[in-house]
Q: What sequence folds into this?
């Protein structure tokens, strides 16, 4: 839901950033885990699900494409082309 709303608002506004920070998505869906390893695994699953959704939206021509951005070793955000 958050992803869809963000992309819809991106399409309507030239001022809004086209980048979605993964940490914001994790906070929106309240990702928590008992250990660091489990948390990394959950975050990885969320990123995979986001990529699956974005691939579908690209196929349906809702978005033009997307690219993941890294900060060092960490996959930090995704930039949407609308």
A:
């Amino acid at each position: 839901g958050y992803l869809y709303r963000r992309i819809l608002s991106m399409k309507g506004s030239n001022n809004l950033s086209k980048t979605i920070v993964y940490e914001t998505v994790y906070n929106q869906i309240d990702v928590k885990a008992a250990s660091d390893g489990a948390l990394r695994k959950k975050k990885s699953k969320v990123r995979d699900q986001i990529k699956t959704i974005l691939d579908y939206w690209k196929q349906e021509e809702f978005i033009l494409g997307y690219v993941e951005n890294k900060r060092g070793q960490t996959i930090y955000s995704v930039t949407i082309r609308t």
